[in-house]
Q: What sequence folds into this?
């Protein structure tokens, strides 16, 4: 069994919150198709790339308007005068090696790429791909798995066909515990909570990283002024003080 607490250096796995407990449970149960959704800057991609991969490097696709089907399965590249070679794409490579395919910001995929991803992430009995060089039929390794991430808040915004292939969707609404440990100790509590105030004032983990780095040489006041508008900078610093006064 995989233990999220061990992999993240956390003393008690039962204390995991914000969707991380659910992720640990479904992966321990053997789920191999999962969507992680919710606000940005919480460590969804970090978890997808590193947790439960059993030491096999994950493959990553970042969906943008410019991502093509060749970026997914592979393409022909010139290797000399009049000679071409097939360059295997991350999706087929993860099929072959039985590794995890991490598809970031899947909601931004173009129509052609989304259609291909639906084929690549289909159930093991249905998914197959014909190699353009050898004509061999390639199917996913038994250990192949997929985690998709998105920053959307409503799953209804995802295509129905995609949701059907990924019936397990987990909302991640607070920072990844291992990522928080990279911050100075006084920032870990606020970063783990994900915000200093209401939902409209959510502060991403990346912003906490930037603040932590800048204040080392510029001081807290200057660092906050560079990252936030004046009123929010003051509220941020005040909230940090209050947070660290609590027992």
A:
């Amino acid at each position: 069994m995989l233990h999220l607490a061990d992999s993240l250096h956390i003393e008690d796995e039962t204390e995991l919150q914000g969707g991380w407990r659910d992720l640990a449970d479904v992966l321990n149960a053997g789920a191999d198709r999962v969507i992680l959704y919710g606000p940005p800057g919480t460590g969804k991609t970090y978890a997808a790339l590193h947790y439960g991969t059993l030491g096999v490097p994950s493959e990553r696709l970042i969906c943008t308007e410019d991502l093509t089907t060749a970026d997914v399965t592979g393409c022909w590249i010139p290797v000399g005068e009049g000679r071409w070679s097939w360059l295997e794409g991350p999706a087929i490579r993860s099929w072959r090696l039985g590794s995890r395919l991490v598809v970031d910001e899947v909601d931004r995929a173009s129509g052609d790429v989304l259609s291909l991803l639906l084929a690549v992430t289909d159930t093991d009995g249905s998914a197959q791909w014909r190699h353009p060089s050898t004509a061999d039929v390639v199917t996913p390794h038994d250990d192949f798995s997929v985690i998709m991430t998105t920053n959307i808040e409503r799953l209804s915004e995802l295509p129905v066909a995609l949701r059907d292939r990924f019936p397990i969707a987990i909302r991640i609404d607070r920072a990844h515990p291992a990522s928080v440990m990279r911050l100075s100790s006084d920032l870990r509590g606020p970063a783990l909570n994900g915000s200093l105030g209401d939902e409209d004032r959510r502060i991403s983990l990346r912003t906490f990283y930037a603040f932590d780095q800048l204040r080392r040489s510029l001081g807290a006041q200057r660092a906050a002024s560079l990252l936030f508008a004046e009123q929010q900078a003051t509220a941020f610093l005040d909230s940090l003080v209050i947070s660290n006064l609590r027992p």
